[in-house]
From TrEMBL:
Protein name: Regulatory protein RecX
Ranges of residues in domain RecX second three-helical: 104-144
A GO biological-process term: regulation of DNA repair
Name of the gene: recX
Cellular localisation: Cytoplasm
Function: Modulates RecA activity.
Length: 258
């Protein structure tokens, strides 16, 4: 059989034969089999071309996907499946990419942890959750986790949180806010608590009183429409306590306000 057409179509080439057969092949396939228009090929050669073209196309797709950023094996596998590459071809391509270190889930995990250690704000539990979602094995994640000390990351993150909220929240509420935020970011309670206690937070009585008076005014506008006297005072006390103010500060503020 003879090649009657060999035409470039975006990233692939259309190869047509005189027996009304056609297939899409990669440039690598053309080079590998030295294909050109009018060349005669056998049925056996055609099968080899088809097999090689499919593998070459799948590998090129994977490398294209990897060219934007590092990815896990699971992400690349899903990408190939989305492009309707058959499972056996995917397996062959994945093995090749792993051998050539284009895909390395352990190195990927270590890079994520290193980046977080230098400038991130996530704890090990959240990192593990995100990596598992990307298909990385728990074994790799646990191995890399043991290589890093997250106390420095927790301390850095707690300092940023303190700077953000120190003028907005009373001491108890500030402690709860920082601790809970660290836990939500994937740090253990013990690490979060330790990070908070390492902070050098200065909140004087005047600042606390200013905060509570502003909050009291807001809550008074809310409750004074429905309550008065003792009931109003109780409602205000409960509302301020929920905001994290100490009862001694609440009593002082209420005496000045009411």
């Amino acid at each position: 059989m003879k090649i009657t057409k060999l035409e470039k179509k975006k990233r692939l080439y259309l190869l047509e034969l005189d027996q009304a057969q056609s297939l899409y092949i990669t440039e690598d396939t053309i080079v590998r089999f030295m294909l050109s228009r009018d060349k005669e090929i056998s049925q056996e050669e055609l099968k080899e071309i088809q097999t090689y073209a499919q593998l070459s196309h799948a590998k090129n797709l994977a490398l294209y996907h990897l060219s934007f950023k590092a990815r896990t094996g699971c992400e690349v596998r899903d990408y190939l499946a989305k492009h309707e590459i058959d499972e056996s071809t995917i397996e062959t391509v994945m093995n090749t990419l792993k051998e050539d270190k284009w895909i390395d889930d352990l190195a990927y995990t270590r890079a994520i942890f290193q980046s977080n250690h230098l400038s991130g704000d996530k704890g090990p539990y959240l990192l593990k959750q995100k990596l598992i979602q990307k298909g990385v094995s728990s074994h790799y994640i646990d191995q890399v986790t043991s290589e890093f000390d997250f106390s420095e990351v927790a301390q850095r993150t707690s300092q940023k949180l303190a700077k953000q909220y120190v003028k907005k929240l009373p001491p108890r509420a500030l402690k709860d806010k920082i601790t809970q935020t660290l836990i939500n970011k994937g740090f253990s309670y013990e690490v979060a608590k330790h990070a908070y206690h390492q902070l050098d937070i200065e909140q004087d009585e005047e600042q606390t009183l200013d905060l509570i008076m502003k909050e009291l005014e807001k809550q008074h506008q809310k409750y004074s429409r429905k309550y008065e006297g003792y009931e109003l005072k109780q409602r205000l006390t409960q509302a301020l306590a929920r905001k994290g103010y100490d009862y001694s500060d609440i009593s002082t503020a209420l005496r000045e306000f009411l």
